[in-house]
Structure formats: structure tokens, C-alpha cells
Amino acid sequence: MKTSRELLRSSRRWATTLAAVCVTHSIAQAGVFYDESVSGDLSGLFSAPLQGGNLSIGNNTISGSSISTDRDYITFTIPAGQAVTSMTLSSFVSADDVIFVALTAGNTSINPATANSNLGSMLGYGHPGVPHLGTDILDNLAAGAGAAGFSAPLTPGDYTLWIQQTQAQNVAYSFDLTAVPEPADAAWAVAALLAGTAAYRHHQRRNANGKV
């Protein structure tokens, strides 16, 4: 028969594994956040981006297309208790090699007419494309010269993306924003599972000894 210490260690292992499985399962439930081919064209107004709403735990896919002066603006919200750890360029189809992407804090973007003289109003920007397929571009955006800069992960709040192909070749793109529970919430979940499992084991031992 296992000792109480061995049971507790076993409970901890099971609780930690269960917590990891729960988070992994949530991330596996990736979904479409916005798809232009299904839901219509994204907003072309920097002052009134499409308001996408809250991200869900997992990969939130934004898909669209842009050509020349067609600008795509979309705002996403990271709810309390979550963080965005990556923004992966998951698809890029074009005769051109890159597309322009900018990230701002809040639910509006920057005026493109004054962008070059107001780079500090953006958190970051960059020109991801074919070389970045399948990779996280948050660091690339944060390194945009003159931008305010930021450090991943992105914390709760509103953020707006400006996506644009400035050349005559159409670009079809998809980005995956990966949202996860913030570390504090993940630690709380593990602690709660540990406490619940320990209480259950304790109850089992009391029943085995004839106690209620």
C-alpha cells in the first residue's frame, strides 16, 4: 500500500499532467478569428478598424488579401488572464515577397498619411513574407526602426493590426495569433487541481478507515 507521501506525489504528477493536457487541448482547438473570404472585407479605415472581439485560448487565425492601396485593419482583444505568445505567418501567396504589417495599442491604428513621421505611435511594424512562413513575427515587428517597441508576450488589452500590400501584386495571407493562459492563472489552475486531488485522496483514506 502506498504511503500518504507517495499518494501526494502521485496526485501532484497527475494534477500537473492534467493541467498541461487541458492547456494543450485548448490550444489544439484552434479556430478562425476572421476570414475575409467568409465574412467579408476587413475595414479599410485606420480610425475605424473591424472590431474582432476577444481572442480565444489557442490559435486565432486572421486571413485576408491585400493589393496596392487596399488596407486591412482589425482590432483584437486579449482578455484578462490571457497573453499572446506568438503571431505566426501561416500562409502567404503572392508574386511579391513581402507584405507590410503594423501593430498599435488600442482600437484604432495610425494615420497612413503621417505614418512615416509618426512611427513612435506604433508598437512595431515590419515586412514579413516568404522567408518568414511558419515563423513567429512578433520579434520582427518589435524591431521596427523608430517604433515604440514591445516585448512578447502581449498582455491583456486591445491591439490593432494594419496589414497592407503596397505593390500591384495581390497577397493572400493568414496569421495565427496564439493566446495562452497567463502564467499566474496557469499556476493557480495547477494549485487548484493539486488541492482538489489531495482532498479526494484524503477522503478516500478516511472512507477506507471507516470514517465519514
Description:
The protein is of the alpha+beta class and 212 residues long. It has one domain (31-182): Jelly Rolls. Helices cover 28% and strands 32% of the residues. It contains four helices and nine strands; from the N terminus they run H-E-H-E-E-E-E-E-E-H-E-E-H. It has helices at 4-28, 36-39, 138-142, 183-208; strands at 31-35, 50-54, 58-66, 71-78, 82-94, 100-105, 124-126, 157-164, 171-181. It has a five-stranded mixed β-sheet. A four-stranded mixed β-sheet has the order 1-3-9-5. The radius of gyration is 22 Å and the shape is globular. The chain starts with a helix and ends with a helix. The model is unreliable at 10-28 and 185-193 (pLDDT under 50).
What's the quick description here?
This protein is α+β, with helices and mostly antiparallel strands. The protein has helices at 4-28, 36-39, 138-142, 183-208, and strands at 31-35, 50-54, 58-66, 71-78, 82-94, 100-105, 124-126, 157-164, 171-181.
Question: Which short descriptors sum up this protein?
Answer:
single chain; alpha+beta; Jelly Rolls; five-stranded mixed β-sheet; four-stranded mixed β-sheet; 28% helix; 32% strand
Query: What structural class do the secondary elements suggest?
Result: alpha+beta
The CATH class is identified as Mainly Beta
Largest sheet: 5 strands, mixed
Tally the helices: 4
Q: Any idea what the radius of gyration is?
A: 22 Å
Total separate domains: 1
Query: How large is the share of residues in beta strands?
Result: 25-35%
Kindly identify the CATH topology: Jelly Rolls
Rounded mean pLDDT is 83
The level of helicity is 25-40%
What overall form do the CA principal axes indicate? Answer: globular
What is the total tally of β strands? 9
